[in-house]
């Protein structure tokens, strides 16, 4: 345990030193660039050192206060970005106030502080990405022991098989617990046959375990509460399997959810009131900007569809279909027609890969998501957002509500043109696929924020540009 603490302390010290050097360097570079662009006057080296030093110390202290140097920080990358913005933002005002109150004779030009702060935020975000996501400096990579080796624990083995899935942690092994369903349990992972008693503490210490994940099939009478309580007192993280999967995979494992977990979680309703109040304005503004650039593409697409089969069949180039929106309200989604006019003569059907009902033009516009562009009108009407779960048809929703637990919770937010589920599970044509997509949809509903929306938009642009769409 002492060795573990020394390693954690060493990693934290290296992180503080590295970021101090980066912050100081970006402060210097910002001043250098401003002087080269003749937006700022050259200053003495002493004056520059005082200002850069004051900014560096302020950011380090604020970062420390928001937990960015906590050795056991188990935070999503979005959460780390949020903390960086808060710490640097606080530092900006702190330095501004201190400079004017006590160091008026050392004030830099007005452009210096905003430029330096902007450069520092970008640099720290990039640096944290590599240190946390790629495991540099050993940061964010906790040694984890899983209690349980049955059916519930096996989801880690099934969903996190690749090394890239385990960048954030090192899995020491699985400890079988009485009551585990071993027939459906762990198959290929390391099993650690260990009695959960006083000797368990020694095993935790000897193996430098930093987090214990509770994944046993039966808890009542089998979970060693006293031992786990002692571990928690010693600073070992104890995490429920659902919380672990949510944190590491960006999805909520719907088929493993139980009522008490839902009750004690933060629910599936946004508490971001500012974001909600600006939702329509933000989406309408983006829709207007996008429409300004893509209207020639839309006009050309409509013309091609008309010449392909619209002129012959007399069917509209647009396709309207009833979908389920916010709070279960029905609306008509608008798309460019990508299927034959008689595609649903036998009733509603799931779309499928290599669907024979899709026209020649339809294959192309689906691949590059051009068929979705008319939904800008749905955004203008307030029926859809840019980011959110994809709206489903009422006929399928009725079936999915019966067969998929918690399915209705995805209607707590407006449906969107692009979604977290589409990025992580891009194809769905059955109830089973809908279950998998719901895991990501509920994660979005639970964690929706401006930063997550921006991340989804950026990755969606990548999909469109490289033709990775359906």
From TrEMBL:
Residues 282-465 form the Bacterial sugar transferase domain. GO terms for cellular component: membrane. It is a multi-pass membrane protein. GO terms for biological process: colanic acid biosynthetic process. The chain crosses the membrane at residues 12-33, 48-68, 80-99, 111-131, 284-307. Keywords: Membrane, Transferase, Transmembrane, Transmembrane helix. Belongs to the bacterial sugar transferase family. PANTHER family: COLANIC BIOSYNTHESIS UDP-GLUCOSE LIPID CARRIER TRANSFERASE, UDP-GLUCOSE:UNDECAPRENYL-PHOSPHATE GLUCOSE-1-PHOSPHATE TRANSFERASE. This is TIGR03013 family PEP-CTERM/XrtA system glycosyltransferase. It comes from Alteromonas genovensis.
